[in-house]
TrEMBL record:
Alphabetized InterPro entries for the sequence: ClpP/crotonase-like_dom_sf, Enoyl-CoA_hyd/isom_CS, Enoyl-CoA_hydra/iso, Enoyl-CoA_hydra_C
Gene3D superfamilies associated with the record: 2-enoyl-CoA Hydratase, Chain A, domain 1, Lyase 2-enoyl-coa Hydratase, Chain A, domain 2
PROSITE patterns with a match to the protein in the record: ENOYL_COA_HYDRATASE (PS00166)
Recorded family membership: Belongs to the enoyl-CoA hydratase/isomerase family.
The organism's taxonomic lineage, starting at the top: Eukaryota, Metazoa, Porifera, Demospongiae, Heteroscleromorpha
Pfam families: ECH_1 (PF00378)
Gene Ontology MF: a single term: catalytic activity
Protein name (database record): 3-hydroxypropionyl-coenzyme A dehydratase
Amino acid sequence: MTDYSSYQHLLIEKSDGIITLTMNRPETLNSTNFRLHNELSRIWLDIGADPEVRVAVVTGAGEAFSAGGDFEMIEQAIDNPAIVAQNTKEAGDIVYNILNLDKPVISAINGVAVGAGLAVALMADISIAAEDARITDGHIRLGAKYYLLTCDFLDGKEAERIGLVSMAVPRDELMETAMRVARRLADGPQPAIRFTKRALNQWLRQAGHTSFDYSLLAEALGFFGDDVKEAWPRCASDGGPNTRRRKTRDVGTFSCQIEVFSADGSPLLTRLGVEPRRRIQSELADGSIVEDAIGEARVSVEGVETTTIVVFVGEGAPTLLGAYTLEGALLMVDPIRQQLAPTHALRMANLIEFIDSEVPQH
């Protein structure tokens, strides 16, 4: 029996010949960190060696399929030959190991699909997308050059229209459809299905060695150019020099920017009867330090009332809803639907462990 216990970011379920792989980093839209990237490169070898598996289905946890490489992995790869070489090898393995696996792979594209995640989605033998899935950077299979050159997003319906995915279905029918197709393949004549996949993929193997290998090299070289060095700070901070340091996640649909504390103009807070309690220092994106007064206020967010910390900033400054406030109201930003959504409270033990890991050791 094949042992899948080493996989941390892939949830693996097997049932009657079908293995379901779920990329499981929903808090980051299933972005590929070093671990997940590596797991996606080698899981197909284990599936190929598993006599109990006849079909594989791959999807993402939560609202996204995969948002591509996470910021930490990208940042560490810049000007780092060893990391770029490893990532390039694994990127090739993701594509070729799916291509060479003789068992059919079905992708259930349940949301945003970008980069390495999209490679998995489109290299599947049958790709089924939710109609409202968001896709960009489809650099593996057939598709229009327009989308490759502009990086525009296309939804599942458009992806089906241009032949980028096999079919698009309503989101609530996605997994049912994928599993129905998987069941049909798992119950079908295995030698015929596997030989058919090998024959159909032969031209992709040939194209891979003439085009895909070159694209891998070109992508690797990009990590050593001036463009990525100049663009990365803007991409990572997503704010100007006078913007307080924010938690930012750009998923292509919109950029969610949240202050640590909620902020509003001093005159408005004063008129509301909020009094400053003490002063704190905040670090701006350019590294400079500013000092602001803070106080406490009772607020209502989406009908949920909570007491929160507010920052007294200058008159005319924008009103910003803080992550601290959202946490107190047990709300989070849903970057796919662009709205607030209920979430769970943090366990204090986990919070303390996180804080301890962030405190410099002297």
